[in-house]
Structures are given as C-alpha cells and as structure tokens.
Amino acid sequence: MNTNTHPAFNASTLGQNNSIGVVGANLGFGFCKLVIDGQEHTFMSALTPLNTGVEGLASRKPARENIVLGDDGKLYEAGVDGVLNSTEEPLKVLSREWARSKLYKLLMGATLNRMAMTGKRQWIVVTGLAADHFKDTDYRADVAKLWKGQHGKHTTPFGDIEILDVQVIPETAGGFVTLMKDKYFNGLIRAGSNGVILDFGRMTVNWLPFRGDQTDGNRFSSVDVGVSNVINEATKLVRAETRQPNLHPLDVEAAMLGLRPITKIVDGIGGRKETRQVSMEIPLSKAVIEVWPRIEQAITNSLGDMRGKLLIGIGGGAQLFEPLIRDTYKQSTIEIAPDAQMTNAQGMHNLGRQIAMAKGYGVGA
Predict the structure, then answer these.
(1) How far, in whole angstroms, is CA 13 from its chain's centroid?
(2) Cα torsion angle, 103, 204, 145, 64, sign
(3) pTM for the model
(4) Are 224 and 337 in contact (CB under 8 A)?
C-alpha cells in the first residue's frame, strides 16, 4: 500500500543530518514515553484505524508522525485519545506478549517516524521491558530484533533510518540512571545504606533494589498488576453508582483524567430528575485500596522487610499509589520522582548516549 496516497501522508522531504541520533524508547501499555536526542515526547498507547468512512474521522487531520502502516495494509493513527466517541475502541494488549503484539509494532512505527523527522539517518536505540518479562531471553531477543529492523534498517514516510545498535534493559534500570544524575536523589542514594525503586506502570509494578550507587541485579522483579487494575475496580464502583452496567473502563479513565465527566440521574427537588456529575475521588480511592494488597504482597515476597529503606516511586502510577506507599511503609523514607512518568525514558536516553560515545559516534543533544 502506498501510504502517500492518504491525505494525512504528505511527508515533506527532510534534509540529511550526518550525526548519530539517540532515542530512549519506553513504550508502555498506557503511554509511549520517548526521549529523542534530548527532546521528550509522549502519546497514548492507543491506535485507531484511519478510515475516512468512519464518522468523525473524515475531517480529522492527524499529525503525520502518528500515521503508521500495519502489516494488514491498513493505516492507523497512533496516540488517538482512546475515549473519543468518533473512533472505535483502541486496540489493547493485556498480556505478557506486549512487545510481540501488533499494537507494540505500530507504536514503534510512530516512534520511528519521529526519529526520521529529525533528518538523522543513523540511530542508537535503548528500550526496556518489565523486569520479569526482561528475564525471558527469547522475548528480549525478539524485541531487539524488532527494533533492529530488516537488514538493520526501517523505511518511514520521512526517509529510511539505520539502527546501529539496540539495547534492551529492565525498564526501571533507566529510572535508576536518571535518579543518579539528579543532584538531590544522587545524594539520597549515596547517603543511604540501601533502598528500592518502585516503578508503577499501567500493567505492571517493577522494583529494583539498590545499595548505595549499585543496583541488585539478582532481586529485581515485577508483578503483572498496575494502574489498569485500579481503573477496572473503579469502573465496577461507578457502574453501580450510576446504574450504567455497560460503562466502559475508558470512560472511567477519561473521568479520572478530567477529560470527560460521567453523569448520573438523581431525584431532585419536587421529585424532578436531575443530572449530576459523578465524583471520581471516592471510587478511585476505594479501587486503589482494593488493588494495593496484591502489589504489597508481591514486593514483600520478593524483598522481605522494607523498614528503614529508601523507597523511590517512579512511573505514571506513582502518585496514584503514593498514599498507600506512605501508609504501608511508615518506617521507611519515601520519595516520589518529580517527573515520574518520564524517569525511565530519560535514563534510557542517557544510556544510549553513553553507548554512542563509547563507540566513538558523534551525538547531538
């Protein structure tokens, strides 16, 4: 299929840039977090078939970098807000086969588009996997092979790019690199005897123990529970409150993010029916409390007593779980990274720069 025939695909000719590009690519279940030559990019891990016959899409003008071609010959828009009524439900993968999925490959395509748009044609890629997923050697190799591309190259509407090197790491290791480059956290980590990074993602929670400036590679692990479980539990509560049994978790997520409120019908003055907005505070709080014990138990089984340790929360769900972290580990020092969602991707980018410099490549930002 010639993608240039689609009105969204009018990619301009970009100038060539002979320096080496570096990308830290953290393609998560909820959001894609990228650092491309020092520039941060985020977009939803959602894909919508780009069919101009679907109501609402005929007049859409998607950003060119978000248009990706699937192996099925169809065009998709990456990063579309998953709660738009005008689109069909975004494709989601709820399994440990995430990085082998159609969705992951398409999101990678949107990342490659952004890389090619810089004009650079050669790249170093560092990406990550949840800890227990990373331990699967074959899985890790498949991810590296996917990023490497056929004969080390990928074709995009913005030109071909060559992948010089791919490194797949436990994603939370990227977060540790970022924290060690931060003056405040570097001081805390070096001063403390030991601690743990707790990485709260959409589908997984990862932990990476450290002692001083050294990580413990023998005890890093993860559990397949995360923010999505909170959304699902909150959905059950909101369905009961609103008497809307078919309410979709994406609608609840949109309400959580303040994008689109959920309403319910109540009896008003004089018996008249009134429409009122549903507060998400109570169902969300109850949902977090419901999910947390599974996470806490997995951490305890892996790491044992957490008293007296420095616990640093990162990941997009860190603030969501922060009250439970503080309540559970009262005898520990708790810190939440200020840019928690981007922490892993920032570290992946820094590692990529180190690899590039070690190999004698000239790199930019």
Answers:
(1) 30
(2) positive
(3) 0.87
(4) no
Superfamily of 175-224+292-340 according to CATH: ATPase, nucleotide binding domain (3.30.420.40)
Domains 17-172+344-358 and 175-224+292-340 share a fold: yes
What one-letter code names the amino acid at 303? L
> Which amino acid is located at 292 in the chain?
W
- pLDDT per residue over 351-361, tens digit each? 999 999 998 88
C-alpha span between 211 and 195 (Å, rounded): 6
17-172+344-358: CATH topology: Nucleotidyltransferase; domain 5 (3.30.420)
Distance (Å, rounded) from C-alpha 109 to C-alpha 89?
20
Distance in Å from the first CA to the final CA of the chain: 35
Cβ–Cβ under 8 Å, residues 235 and 227: no
Q: How confident is the model over 76-110, as pLDDT tens digits?
A: 888 865 444 433 444 455 567 888 888 899 999 99
- The burial of 60, by beta-carbon neighbours within 10 Å (0-12 exposed, 13-18 middle, 19 or more buried), is given as middle
Q: Give the type of residue at 239.
A: R
| Domain residue ranges of the chain, discontinuous segments joined by + | 17-172+344-358, 175-224+292-340, 227-283
Closest CA to 208 of 126, 332, 104, 315: 315
Amino acid identity for residue 209 in this structure: P
For 10, the token pair is 């009018």
Report how far apart, in Å, the C-alpha atoms of 160 and of each of 7, 55, 78, 169, 315 are: 21, 34, 20, 25, 32
8 Å CB contact between 33 and 359: no
Q: Is the Cβ–Cβ distance between 261 and 242 less than 8 Å?
A: no
